[in-house]
C-alpha cells in the first residue's frame, strides 16, 4: 500500500469528519450516486438502505482512523473484500465505488473539499482498493477446450477479458501515456 504523507492523512481525516457530521445523509448521497452510475448494483443491497448507510460510515471511520497503520489495515481490508465477494461484489465495481465516493465528498462538502483533498482521497482509495483487489480469490480456471481447433472465445470470456483490461488501465498497469488511470 502506498503510504500517504501526514498532510494527505490530515486532509482525508478532516474531510471524512465533515462527511460523517452529515450522518446518514452523506452515505445516502453516496449510494444514490453509486446506483445512478451502476444501476445493477442496487439489487445487491436491501430495500431499506438506512442500516447499510450506518455500516458504511462506521467502516469508513475505522479505515480512515487506521490509514497510518498498514499492519492493522491490511487484514481488515482483506477480510472486507472477501466478505463483499459473498454479497456479489465484483472487481469491476471498485472503480465506480471510488468515483461515487469522491463525487459524494465533492458534492456534499462543496468548496471545503479542495483539489488537495480530492488528490489525497484519490491516493487513499487507490491504495485501499489495491489491497482489497489483491485479497480476492483467484478466478476458477477455465476448462480445457474440447476441440482440436484451440480455444474459442465465448461472450462471457470476452466480458471478463474486457473487465480485466479496464482494471489494469484503472490501476495504471499497461496504460497508454494518454490514458488517465483511475484513480
Detailed description of the structure:
With 183 residues, this protein is mainly alpha-helical. The chain folds into two domains: 6-137, Orthogonal Bundle (Globin-like); 143-183, no CATH class. It has helices at residues 6-20, 24-37, 50-65, 70-87, 93-109, 115-135, 155-170. The longest helix is centred in the last third of the chain and has 21 residues, at 115-135.
The tally of structural domains comes to 2
Q: Say how many strands there are.
A: 0
Which regions are unreliable across 5 or more consecutive residues at pLDDT < 50? 146-183
- The name of the CATH architecture of the largest domain is Orthogonal Bundle
According to CATH, what is the topology of the largest domain? Globin-like
Q: Name the CATH superfamily classification of the largest domain.
A: Globins
The level 1 CATH classification of the largest domain is Mainly Alpha
Q: Proportion of β residues?
A: under 5%
User: Largest sheet at a glance?
Assistant: none
Number of helices: 7
Distance between the termini: 14 Å
- Rounded to the nearest angstrom, the radius of gyration is 18 Å
Written as H for each helix and E for each strand, in order along the chain, the element string is HHHHHHH
Average of per-residue pLDDT values: 81
Helical residue percent? 55-70%
Structural class comes to: mainly alpha
C-alpha geometry: globular
Helix/strand layout:
Blueprint: H1 6-20, H2 24-37, H3 50-65, H4 70-87, H5 93-109, H6 115-135, H7 155-170
Helix pairs in contact: 1-3, 1-6, 2-3, 2-5, 4-6, 5-6
